[in-house]
Amino acid sequence: MVNLLLLVLSFPIGTIMALTILGRFFKTGRFYARILSCYFLLVTCAAYGVLASVALRLVGKVSIAQWTTARAFKNLACPIIGLEFKVENEGALDTRPAVFVSNHQSELDIVFLGRVFPKHCSVTAKRSLKYIPFLGWFMALSGTVFIDRANRKSAIAAFDSAIQEIKGNKQSVWIFPEGTRSYFSKPELLPFKKGAFHLAIQAGVPIVPVVVANYSHVLHLQERTFEPGVINVKVLDPIDTKGLATDDVDALILSTRENMLKQLKLISATGVKAEKSQ
Length: 278
Hints:
By secondary structure, the protein is of the alpha/beta class.
């Protein structure tokens, strides 16, 4: 059994090592070496997350399962792929409970979450992820709010359950309001969906926007670029939703998105200037 496990592990590790050597001469080699490293570490940490979730559930602390797994992934991935996140106003991440919203650029956002994900928080995810081995098992065991976008009734039920978790257990929720990855090469945002804002108002908790600078200088899938770098992150002050009603959702979305876009452009410009000065 041990020999079989070593054989299974030797292939991805050997491939990553070979691509790393090629990466000294070719940008494409570096790209695929870092991509494969991220996926290999993701599967490894998801397996750890399954065990951690079970253990923490047994001792009544499953609310920190996603936090502890996210930190493990970040601590492994960032040194290997050469990433650093500079976080401004990090203290606002201690707001509990809250609905955290952030822009969604690419698959690399999972490393960003590893850096900033707060304790006592759960992510939302599309329901199809639930059936991916290891990753889906971990997400299900750790309390992920799965959303079936094709089934409105099921989606509403999932949000109702999230509201009960927020009110009853002070469990925060992390949502990407754009609904999908943007893959923008410049600091822009897709239109925001309403779910996160309805959730915050109905639960009576603040919204905490988290803005990640455009990082196409680090990862650009279309150009097969994946280089080391520094990515700026700014946590904005919590937005109080007490006293707001359903009729206020559109105005809340508009003001939140405008502020996030403004900050996105500012911290992205700062990051570009810092890169050029090095």
